[in-house]
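Morning F.,

Quick status update on the modeling queue. The single chain you submitted on Monday has been processed. Sequence for confirmation:
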Amino acid sequence: MPDFSPDEAGAAAYQALFAELEARADALRGARAVVLDLRHNNGGSSLWSLRIAERLWGKPAVESARQRAGAKTKVLWRPTPGNLAEVRSFGDLIRAQGDAATAALIDAFVPMFEQAVARGDTWLEEPDEASSGEPAGEAAPLLTVPVYVVVPGQCASACLDAIDVFKLFANTKLIGAPSSADSTYMEVRTPELPSGMARAIIPMKVYVDRPRGNGEHYEPDIVMRDFDWSTGNFLRRIEDDLARR
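C-alpha cells below.
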C-alpha cells in the first residue's frame, strides 16, 4: 500500500487487490503471517486501508472495533463556501476510484454542508459511517494469524489512519521506524493566494476526542535500525520474530 492517493491505474490495482483478498480469504486466514506494507505512503484517503481491513478481519469485526475505539470521537467541519466547493468534488473523485457506496455517502453529506453554509454555522458534525444506526454487537475477527505492518518514518494522515485501524486487533505488530504525527486539524485544501505567488494551507475539519491524540505517533514493536529497508530484509526480521513466538 505505497499510495492512498492513487491515479486511475492505482485505483484499478486496489480493486484487483480487494478481489484477490476476497478470493484468497481462507488461505490468508490460515497463513503463517500477513504483511501489510506502508513503505513510501504519504497519505490520501483512509478508505483504501479501511476496505482492506474489512476484507481481512471481516467487516463486522472492523465496524464494532471502530465503534468501541471512537465512541466519543466527533469530526467537525468548518462550513464555508470554499470548503463546500472542495467537498463537492470528493464524490466524483471517490466514484472514479470505484467506491460507489462511499461516494453515495458523500453525495448525501453535501446538502447538509450547503445548509450549514447558508445558515452561517460555525461547525458541522460529520455523520460517522461506523457509528450510524444501532451500535454493532461485538464480532470476532476472522483473521487471527500474526499481522506485521511495515511503517515508514513519513507515515502521517491517512497512513496513520491505516495503523489506527490495523492496531485495533491484538494480532498486529508494527515493524519499521517511529511514524510521523498529525495535528487534529485535517483535510487540508491549498487555494492559491490572489498574488499567485503562494498558496494557503487550510484545514477543513477537526477531530474531537480522537483516540490518537494531537501530535501522537506510533512506536514500532520491531525497530528496523538497518539502512537496508529492502523487502528481503523485512522478511528476514519477520521470520526471526515468528520463530521466537
